[in-house]
Amino acid sequence: MQGGRKDGTNSLGSRAEAELPSPEFDVSQLIDSFARMGLSAKQMVHTFNTSIEVFMDVITPTSAGVFEANYYKTTLQEHKGLLTSDQSLFDDSRTRAMVTSLLNKRRFQKEFGKAMRAMGAVGVKTVGQIRTNCRAVNAQ
Fold first, then answer.
1. 7: β partners
2. pTM of the model as a whole
3. Which tens digits make up the pLDDT trace of 68-81?
4. Facing residues of 129 across strands?
5. How distant, in Å, are the alpha carbons of 18, 43, 110, 140 from that of 74?
6. What does the record list as GO biological process (predicted)?
7. How far is CA 28 from CA 41, 44, 94, 138, in A?
């Protein structure tokens, strides 16, 4: 995420839920959702699968890179994906090659960086504050 981004001073969970793609979305719904934000299917695959990795590392910490390979090589191939949307990205012919390309760690890191920069440019605010602590509104 680029530094110096403005954050709002009021957050609503309902608004976030309305704007974020559901973990139950199929590939067509995911592609449409990300396209409305100006992101490609390739960017979607790299950002979406990384969020799953972060979530899983909180549950079952692993050494760097181990989760990616194991998750893609076994879990998804056995149709045991954590989220419907994750499994759908692996199963769908439009995105499967992108998902399996993530097994190459160097490629994953390069593409992830590009995708996160693109995602960070979505919905940039012109009104708000640059927070000193990202978890809290600045004291007045």
1. 129
2. 0.61
3. 556 666 777 788 87
4. 7
5. 32, 23, 23, 51
6. response to oxidative stress
7. 10, 12, 9, 39
| 91 assigned binding-site residue | no
The values of phi and psi at residue 71, to 5°, are -65, -45
3-state secondary structure of 129: strand
* Residue 103 CB neighbours (<10 A): 14
- The secondary structure element, H or E, covering residue 39 is none
- 29-62, pLDDT tens digit by residue? 989 988 988 888 888 887 765 554 544 444 444 5
How is residue 93 written in tokens? 């012919």
Residue reference for tokens 């390739």: 42
Encoded tokens for 24? 């139950």
Task: Give the whole-angstrom CA distance, residue 41 versus residue 30.
Answer: 8
How many residues belong to the chain?
140
Domains in the chain with CATH codes: 13-120 (1.10.420.10)
Crossing angle of helices 84-91 and 27-36, rounded to 10°: 100
Return the ∠ at Cα 9 (arms to 6 and 7), rounded to 5°. 15
